[in-house]
Amino acid sequence: MKEDRILEIRHLSKTFGTNLVLKDIDFQVNGGDVTCIIGASGSGKSTLLRCLNLLETPTTGEIVYHGTNIADVKMNAPKYRSRVGMVFQSFNLFNNMTVLENCIIGQTKVLKKSKEEAKRNALSYLEKVGMAPYINAKPRQLSGGQKQRVAIARALAMEPEVLLFDEPTSALDPQMVGEVLEVMQRLAEEGLTMIIVTHEMAFARDVSSHVVFMADGVIVEEGTPKQIFGEPKKEQTKEFLSRFRHG
Ligand SMILES: Nc1ncnc2c1ncn2[C@@H]1O[C@H](COP(=O)(O)OP(=O)(O)OP(=O)(O)O)[C@@H](O)[C@H]1O
Ligand SMILES: [Mg+2]
């Protein structure tokens, strides 16, 4: 089961006006893969994730999900989005709802689960991320790290097949980063398929099964973390990584 091909991105390009932001992107995701996407600001990482979640429409190319091209306009986007979840840098919690309500609403509205089942499910995922004591809190009462852990529980409660993360720790104070990365590391160990855009190189090296290095809208190099961090082949990859090594 673990080797099953879940996503196949073929010749994906995206333009905004005359700005070609993604150029002929190809890569695959198999069940259980933890793919980290690294690269400089503006290289197209968020745009790629947003295309994978249909928040942006690819200009050309295919995103094949279990054999179906979801970039096709006839695709049922809400149904697909419930299988491929997303965690954003800025949490995107509903501020007028409690922690528990945030984790229930998608399940009842989109998955049509009963209130009781949704609540049970929400509680188990909040427990998993260490946020069970805060179920009645509103997001404004939480730290950034706590908010992001709730956002992860909310995404998990939808029981996605793949979870996308766009710089989940970039908006956090440094002392909060560890608690979020720990949760993500645990999910990786449990075999959840994840695609993670991150600037946390130590995390990418330790947790990923696959690393994709992007620059200027193209994949410059990809491979295992050992290959990319240990023996990068391309000059551009070496130069990018050296900036992290020397601070
Ligand atoms: N909605 C949009 N309209 C026009 N241009 C956009 C839009 N979204 C992104 N871009 C452009 O696409 C390019 C890639 O942006 P993107 O946000 O994907 O980069 P990124 O790798 O995620 O960068 P960062 O590390 O800063 O988050 C940039 O030049 C950006 O200005
Ligand atoms: Mg980005």
Describe the protein's architecture and organization.
The protein has 247 residues and is of the alpha/beta class. The chain contains nine helices and ten strands. The chain has helices at residues 45-52, 77-83, 99-109, 115-128, 144-157, 174-189, 201-207, 225-230, 235-245, and strands at residues 5-16, 19-30, 34-39, 60-65, 68-69, 84-87, 162-166, 193-197, 210-215, 218-223. The strands form two sheets. It has a six-stranded mixed sheet, with helices on both faces. A hairpin with a 2-residue loop joins strand 9 and strand 10 (218-223). Helix 3 (99-109) crosses helix 4 and helix 4 (115-128) packs across helix 5. It is globular. The model has no long low-confidence stretch (mean pLDDT 94). It binds adenosine-5'-triphosphate and magnesium ion. Adenosine-5'-triphosphate (ATP) binds next to strand 2 and helix 1. Adenosine-5'-triphosphate binds next to strand 2 and helix 1.
